[in-house]
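Minimal example, chain plus calcium ion.
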Amino acid sequence: MKQPIVCLLLVLAMGAGPHPDSNRTETDKDRAIDDQRNDYSVVAFTSVPVAKRPNILFCISDDQSYAHTGANGEPQIKTPAFDRIAREGIRFTGAFCDAPTCGPSRSAILTGQHIWRLEEAGNIHSTLPAKFMTYTELLQDAGYAVGFTGKGWSPGRLEPGGRTVNPAGTEFNSRKLIPSFKGMTNKDYAANFDEFFAQVSPDQPFCFWLGTHEPHRGYDKGAGQRTGKDPAKVIVPPIFPDHPVVRNDLLDYFVEIEHFDKMVARAIQTLEKSGQLDNTIVVVTSDHGMPFPRAKASLYDAGTHVPLAIRWPSGITAPGRVHEGLVNLSDLAPTFLVAAGLPVPKMMTAGHLIDVFSNKGQPNQRLFKDNSAAFIAMERHDGCREGGKGYPCRALRTREYLYIRNFQPDRWPAGNPDREFCARYIPFGEVDSSPTKQLLLDNKDKIGFTRFYDLAFAKRPAEELYSIKKDPGQLVDLAGNPKFDAIQKQLSAQLQQRLVETKDPRVLDLDAPWDYYPYYGLRRNPNWKVDQKP
Ligand SMILES: [Ca+2]
């Protein structure tokens, strides 16, 4: 094993120490939870002297696709902070969210597990049951100061899951600013980080979640052009018609990404001034892709492929690298625990990235770890089908292919066209309202638009297969094409194996309860409700 930084020990079994809630009355459920909490068997972990435990600054935007940073190639966006972290660390070109929907993606990040293992947390506007351990909670138990600003674990309710504190940490949101554009919040994320940082004692490591509400919609219409961006120069993804409305919608979204990046830059500056930057793992990423049609809330790359850069001078060998292997954001939880010298609970099924960090090769060299596939899933996103039904689907993404399995192809993938079946009271409610969505709705029968309308909103077959290199926009479904029959079978088997190994109820003929869990989101439609379980 290549480990220049830390010495690896193999722990065959160890206790977890006192339960944080050890005063409560024990029930059968509690005992089951404690059994899981104590389950640290067969986990390699690093021996890191307490004084050298790294800090963690986890910066996460809300709804930003992979392409939309300077370092990843979009010429109309300035993201100097992301670019610096990438230049001085590792830029990941194959990072995927676990689910293209805020709450489930964040739950997977915190717990290091696929969303199909997380019960209610597989749905948005739900809860994260306390029995699922989070890296933040384990770091706090080990002595870390843990806090967050902006959007932490969200949206949903904590109490039904048995929690009282946001799983991202103690909240720091009191510092405000006057936002430069409409649609942005007034939270001064960087100032809130400073407030947290000032409270951390010098000998205590910290773990901070800097989560912006940007670039989630809505946007300040025309902000892109007003900040000097040129609609003629923007790269229009192939999933949209090339139209001025789309180009300007993209520019307005870029303005919010730049706001996120400025906050990251200020937080980095605080660490640099204090001399703490080089012993801090700085991560910059997003919870999932852009809030546009056939993107967010779909399993295609525009909804799932995210920017990811990680800087950690004392832990990353040969910085300035590009890592092409496929990773999931859920891999970060075990990564943080191993970096801190802590055991990884067995329930965390994700893989840590320490092998990626310790690469001995030259910049841009291919790496050792088997990062051959990422796994992505969705259950209920926003409530937009009759009776609260979701759109259950799973995907396997390799470097060359995207393979998708849709378990209920009779349902509308982007939500019902009739708003009467949607909690938000909009048609195709999985897709956030936007100028680009409205353009497709208004012109659906016109030449040049129908194809894009169908790509975004029409029903989809039970299986889909796309060639990434030949068809980066994933517009031509190869499933059922005899030339790709062997590939389809192989990818289907690989996905099935992972789902079985990790006990996905959808493939084990077990109760798959997501269609019937409560929905805690806003209901603009008073007639919409979740059906009782039969
Ligand atoms: Ca989001």
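Confidence is low (pLDDT under 50) at residues 1-38, 361-369. Residues 62-63, 102, 216, 287-288 surround calcium ion (CB under 6 Å).
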